[in-house]
TrEMBL record:
UniProt cross-references to PANTHER family, sorted A to Z: CYTOCHROME B
Cofactor(s) annotated in UniProt: heme
Annotated region described as Disordered, given as residue ranges: 517-541
Biased composition (Basic and acidic residues): 519-541
Boundaries of every Cytochrome b/b6 N-terminal region profile domain copy: 11-237
EC number: 7.1.1.8
Keyword flag Transmembrane helix: yes
PROSITE patterns given in the database record: CYTB_NTER
The protein, known as: Cytochrome bc1 complex cytochrome b subunit
């Protein structure tokens, strides 16, 4: 057997003697990772964040985060001689005069959109499969904080070029800050360095964007990965998979090879988008001046739901203490705080509310199929519908103009749909989940259609059913009953201690509604199949 070179062996022995690196690597390089396509969704966000750091570092070499006015004399002819901020002039310089600058700028912007999108779909996967349950509640909260910071990071980066589009978005941000009672004015003066637009907002956003928020994101992502590593990954139900094992491939070499290829694939897609799909052409918008506005301006997709809530909200306000008091513009304050607050607060509390309702304090390492917890899935789809209606109506002017629908009618439709849509989505999703459960129960009980038609001695024609494949059957049999809190009274008519108070009775009713299995897996469907020959079955009609 070949021995390693002395230089490598010496360094390895030195590190192993002092750090115990050998045993650490030996133990962790063989860590098993489950193999399921949905587990790659979180990696999209991780790799996009790495690309953001790399491209952002490149851009900081040339970007000047100041609002001092200069006359543009760069390579873009239509704007030569126009007065603009140094921030906007440097963004144009990166786009037209720095070799590869426009490509890197566009990759950075596309990576930002993909970063947030990756986090959202990863969080949806975790929610719908119940992967947030014990012992992963802390990691779920870290994920919500990461998403919140990613939205703030996107807002600060969106505003840095100081073009007319980003300036219009910044004006909305300033209006939201001013709507906060008592402290809104102070926050605005502190952030902008005086009256709007001030002279400090770009430099302060730049510090937040490249230093503070990325540092916090990096620390939280590290904590997120360490917790995932320690707690082990969840896995989808299947053959040989239990709460006490992990079925998959080892970290080295299988997962490392897959992760490396997936990173290159993600980078390649972003490079293609940055090359062929134009995004944020700031030279077409011109420099920002408070007196100018732009028609049809839209924020990036992840902020679209806030834009929609602002457009749908009626013009309500409250005058405190009569005419001598302050005015609270509910038409700005509610859209800015309530939708995002509802979604983020609901996400943060859901693992603990579900645990309270079901009384389930067990550890869960095998994920649920979304259909097997219909109430959770319906709640998630309702929240997505709520978000989707607000996001869609953020472009109510574009919808009205392009589809020739009155703007007033479009707005009224949105005001109704934002409440009615989630309710309809809940009902439809719940019925779909039950239907899918019945289909699973039928396959487990009767098998699958083989396509083989047989004629019986009595002249009857039947289709032979065959048992499903073992892995498919194990996947379906992975369904677990949702726990329900005991609420039945004993022989003397006395209910359990936890179900005697008003809250206890409410909890028991919610638990029964949430956890009752309306489609048991072994449910019978009509007459039983009878054998036809060796290993074959027929349906008796």
């Amino acid at each position: 057997m070949d021995t390693p070179p002395k230089a490598i062996a010496g360094v390895s022995t030195f590190l192993d003697d002092r750090l115990g690196a050998g045993s650490f690597l030996k133990r962790n390089l063989r860590k098993m990772f489950p193999d399921h396509w949905s587990f790659l969704l979180g990696e999209i966000a991780l790799y996009s964040f790495v690309i953001l750091l790399l491209t952002g570092t490149f851009l900081t070499f040339w970007f000047k985060p100041t609002m001092g006015e200069v006359m543009y004399n760069g390579g873009y002819e239509p704007l030569k001689g126009v007065m603009m901020s140094e921030a906007y002039a440097s963004a144009l310089h990166i786009s037209f005069d720095v070799r590869g600058g426009l490509l890197i700028r566009q990759i950075h912007h596309w990576a930002a959109l993909l970063f947030v999108a990756g986090m959202v779909v990863h969080m949806l996967r975790v929610f719908f499969t119940g992967a947030y349950r014990k012992p992963r509640e802390l990691n779920w909260l870290i994920g919500i904080l990461l998403l919140s910071l990613a939205l703030l990071e996107g807002l600060t980066g969106y505003s840095l070029p100081d073009d007319l589009l980003s300036g219009a978005g910044l004006r909305i941000t300033q209006g939201v800050i001013l709507s906060i009672p008592l402290i809104g004015t102070y926050i605005q003066f502190f952030l902008f360095g005086g009256e709007y637009p001030g002279e400090d907002i770009i430099s302060r956003f730049f510090t937040l964007h490249i230093l503070l928020i990325p540092g916090i994101l990096l620390a939280l992502i590290t904590a997120h990965m360490i917790l995932m590593w320690v707690q082990k990954h969840t896995q989808m139900p299947g053959k040989g998979r239990t709460e006490k094992n992990v079925v998959g491939a080892p970290f080295y070499p299988a997962f490392m090879a897959k992760a490396g290829a997936y990173f290159l694939f993600t980078f390649g897609v972003l490079a293609l988008l940055g090359t062929f799909a134009q995004i944020n052409p700031i030279w077409l918008f011109g420099p920002y001046t408070p007196a100018d506005i732009s028609a049809g301006s839209q924020p990036d997709w992840y902020m679209g739901f806030l834009e929609g809530s602002l457009r749908l909200m009626p013009a309500w306000e409250i005058n405190l203490f009569g005419t001598s008091g302050g005015t609270v513009p509910l038409s700005v304050l509610i859209p800015a705080l309530v939708p995002l607050g509802l979604i983020m607060t609901g996400l943060a509390l859901y693992p603990f509310l579900e645990q309270w309702v079901t009384g389930d304090r067990r550890e869960h390492h095998v994920a649920d199929r979304p259909r097997n917890n219909p109430h959770r899935t319906s709640i998630g789809i309702s929240a997505m519908t709520f978000y989707g209606v607000l996001w869609l109506l953020g472009a109510n002017d574009e919808i009205s103009a392009n589809f020739h629908i009155g703007l007033y009618e479009t707005t009224m439709f949105g005001r109704v749909a934002v409440f009615l849509g989630p309710a309809i989505a809940y009902f439809v999703t719940y019925r779909i989940c039950l239907g899918l459960q019945r289909k699973d129960a039928e396959i487990v009980s009767h098998g699958v259609e083989s396509g083989v038609i047989k004629r019986m001695p009595n002249g009857e024609y039947i289709e032979v059913h065959t048992p499903p494949a073992d892995d498919i059957l194990a996947h379906m049999r992975g369904k677990k009953e949702i726990p329900v809190i005991e609420s039945a009274a004993d022989r003397e008519g006395i209910p359990p201690k936890g179900a005697r108070s008003l809250i206890g009775r409410l909890r028991a009713k919610m638990s029964k509604a949430y956890g009752t299995d309306r489609v048991p897996l072994e449910e019978e469907h009509g007459e039983e199949h009878v054998a036809v020959g060796a290993g074959e079955r027929k349906e008796v009609h």
